[in-house]
Structures are given as structure tokens and as C-alpha cells.
Inverse folding.
């Protein structure tokens, strides 16, 4: 057994050391794997970052109420009467003065321009009250100040400031016939709320002709995750045509829309992986052909066919793993931490950051390993089956 292991190690070392003799073919195979891993990890990092942005937005302590059947805040409408009725449900936390702790909010779409391309995009603007701030933990005004109630003042999320032009502190922006002044920049710790503009709810109602209606109602729960009291009131009162969920559940459902991108990324990765696999097979068959006399000579002096098999297989795996590591590094350097914006469920921009986790990097390396193993298996069989007589012919 020790003799066999020694033979395998000797052949592996010989094959790896001879790689410079097949430099261009080896580089081509390595480059193909690099591209496959880098592209796959870019898709996965985008999905991971978007999902974390949405999961960090919702809370189990807060319920969100929308019109029944609406898929997003944008196409939901809740009247003031419904808000007043639902605020009497059981399970709602109380404010310091004993009032129901909730925030009725508006959600409208305004125009913005991307800094990178100058293209016009939809940006969400939220009409909110002071209780809306209290419902959301971790909000911080990082520049300027809070907007004053009853004025055309807005504060912008830090994500908006990073990705879109025209919203700098002190700027005036026009939405329709109304001009708004940017008086502050807020942070919510990287959640989707940082992709929004916030203003006084009553001003948004008046200036966007929304009457006395809202899009959503956010409710502080007396018990985290317990929305039974709200559900029972909605079921028993025919005037309430509403849906209710915890904020965490609501945004988790919104994030499921990105699962298609994950599958698309894997699909692209598999298709490109097949191309890299073809390249690996070609490289290893060429390697075996160019070293046929050498392999047969080793067999003639006592090396086993097992050593020839593993020597060739390991060569393929080494090339693929080198490509996988380079692809992972490229993706990490250029993608991890990259901030961008994409269209969310309400057809408005959501700013998020690409995030490569250790698990995703591991997936990329595993894909490279699979390409190396499959791409080297059949050439390794050919090497193991080379007849010893080839050594005496002086060529393959």
C-alpha cells in the first residue's frame, strides 16, 4: 500500500511540474473555470445581498396591514375608517399616553436619476408620522435634521444619496408642481427603508391628492409575532377587506421574488460550466497524448495503472481549483460590498449591497472541484489503460 501511495505521489509531482510544458492549454482551462466561478458567485452575491437587505427590514414586533390581495405597498389602499376600526383590535401595544401604537403611511412613486447612468428611475417616497419612526428600530439622522411637520421638507435614506443624484442635503427637488427641500439624511442600518424618501404624511396626502387614504398600516404588537387579534377582527368585520402579516413575514415574501435570479445564476453557471468542462477534457486528453511515452515508460518500470490514473486526475483538479480560487478572489474583490439598486416588488428602486458569504465562496470552489473531477476522469482512464508497448515506440 505504501509503495502504491509513493508511486501515486511521484506521478502527481511529475505531472504538476510538467504543466509549464502545456502552458497555454493549462491557462485556457484555468481561465474557463475562473469565469464560471466568478459569474456564478456574482449572481449569488447579488441574491444574498438583496435578501439580507429585505430580511433586515422586517420585524416580528411589527404587523403590516395592506389591502386584501395587493402584492405590494404601491397597489394597496386603506381608508381612514379602516385604520380607526383596526386600531381597536386586541394585541396592539400602547404608547406612553395609552393610545394604540400604530402608523398609517403613504407610499408614492417619484422620479429620480441614477448617478452611474443618468437614467430615470422610480423612487419610493413615504408619508410617515413620528410614531412611524418609533416603530422602526435603529433609525439615525446622520446628516442634517428631521423634517418639520406640515412643511415641504424631506429626509432621504443613505442608500438614495449614494445611488441617485439631486438629493444632496439642502437640495430642492420638484415632484409635480411641488418643490421639496432635503433637510436630512437617515440611516436604518442597511435595510430597504434606506432606499426611500420620507416626509410628513399629511403633506404627502395633500400634495399627492390622496384624500384621507393610506397605503399601509404598521402596528406595534404587544407580543412579538402574535397577530391573532388583528386577524380575528379582519375576519369578523366585513368592512375590513385587508391582509395582515408580521413585517418580517411580509418582507421575506417580497424577497422570494429574487429566487428566480438565483436559479438563473445557477443555470448560467451550469451552462458555462459545461463549456469549462469541455475545455478541461480537451486539455487533459492533450496532456495524456503528449505524455503517452512517459506514462508507458513508468508502467514499464513498475508503476501501476492506478498511479497513472490518479496522477492525471489530480492534474485536472489542480488546474480547476486554481481557476476556482482565482474566480472567487475576483468576485470577492470586485463584487463583495458593491452597492447598487434594482427594481423591487413595488416597481421602485431598492438599494442593496452585494454580499459574498463563506458558504457562497465554498459553493464556487465546489463547482470548480466538480469540473476538475469530471473533466479529468475520462482522460485519467485513458492514461491508466495506455499499453506498455507505447514506451518502446517513442511516441503516442
Amino acid at each position: 500500500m505504501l509503495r502504491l501511495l509513493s508511486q501515486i505521489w511521484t506521478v502527481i509531482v511529475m505531472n504538476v511540474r510538467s504543466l509549464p510544458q502545456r502552458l497555454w492549454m493549462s491557462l485556457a482551462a484555468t481561465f474557463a473555470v475562473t469565469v464560471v466561478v466568478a459569474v456564478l458567485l456574482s449572481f449569488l452575491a447579488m441574491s444574498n445581498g438583496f435578501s439580507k437587505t429585505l430580511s433586515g427590514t422586517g420585524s416580528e414586533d411589527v404587523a403590516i396591514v395592506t389591502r386584501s390581495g395587493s402584492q405590494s405597498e404601491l397597489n394597496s389602499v386603506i381608508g381612514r375608517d379602516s385604520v380607526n376600526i383596526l386600531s381597536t383590535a386586541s394585541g396592539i401595544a400602547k404608547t406612553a399616553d395609552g393610545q394604540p401604537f400604530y402608523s398609517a403611511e403613504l407610499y408614492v412613486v417619484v422620479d429620480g436619476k441614477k448617478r452611474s447612468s443618468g437614467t430615470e428611475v422610480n423612487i419610493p417616497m413615504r408619508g410617515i408620522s413620528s410614531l412611524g419612526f418609533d416603530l422602526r428600530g435603529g433609525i439615525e439622522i446622520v446628516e442634517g435634521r428631521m423634517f418639520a411637520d406640515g412643511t415641504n421638507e424631506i429626509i432621504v435614506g443613505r442608500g438614495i444619496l449614494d445611488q441617485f443624484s439631486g438629493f444632496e442635503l439642502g437640495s430642492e427637488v420638484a415632484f409635480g408642481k411641488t418643490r421639496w427641500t432635503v433637510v436630512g439624511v437617515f440611516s436604518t442600518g442597511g435595510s430597504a427603508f434606506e432606499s426611500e424618501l420620507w416626509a410628513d404624511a399629511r403633506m404627502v396626502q395633500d400634495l399627492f391628492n390622496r384624500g384621507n387614504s393610506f397605503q399601509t398600516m404598521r402596528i406595534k404588537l404587544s407580543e412579538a409575532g402574535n397577530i391573532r387579534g388583528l386577524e380575528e377582527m379582519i375576519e369578523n368585520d366585513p368592512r375590513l377587506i385587508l391582509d395582515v402579516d408580521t413585517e418580517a413575514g411580509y418582507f421575506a415574501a417580497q424577497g422570494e421574488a429574487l429566487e428566480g435570479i438565483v436559479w438563473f445564476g445557477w443555470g448560467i453557471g451550469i451552462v458555462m460550466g459545461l463549456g469549462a468542462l469541455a475545455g478541461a477534457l480537451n486539455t487533459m486528453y492533450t496532456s495524456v497524448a503528449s505524455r503517452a511515452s512517459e506514462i508507458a515508460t513508468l508502467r514499464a518500470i513498475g508503476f501501476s495503472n492506478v498511479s497513472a490514473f490518479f496522477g492525471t486526475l489530480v492534474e485536472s483538479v489542480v488546474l480547476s481549483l486554481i481557476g476556482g480560487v482565482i474566480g472567487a478572489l475576483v468576485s470577492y474583490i470586485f463584487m463583495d460590498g458593491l452597492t447598487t439598486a434594482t427594481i423591487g416588488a413595488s416597481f421602485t428602486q431598492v438599494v442593496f449591497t452585494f454580499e459574498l458569504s463563506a458558504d457562497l465562496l465554498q459553493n464556487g470552489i465546489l463547482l470548480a472541484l466538480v469540473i476538475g473531477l469530471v473533466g479529468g476522469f475520462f482522460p485519467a482512464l485513458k492514461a491508466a489503460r495506455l499499453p506498455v508497448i507505447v514506451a518502446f515506440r517513442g511516441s503516442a
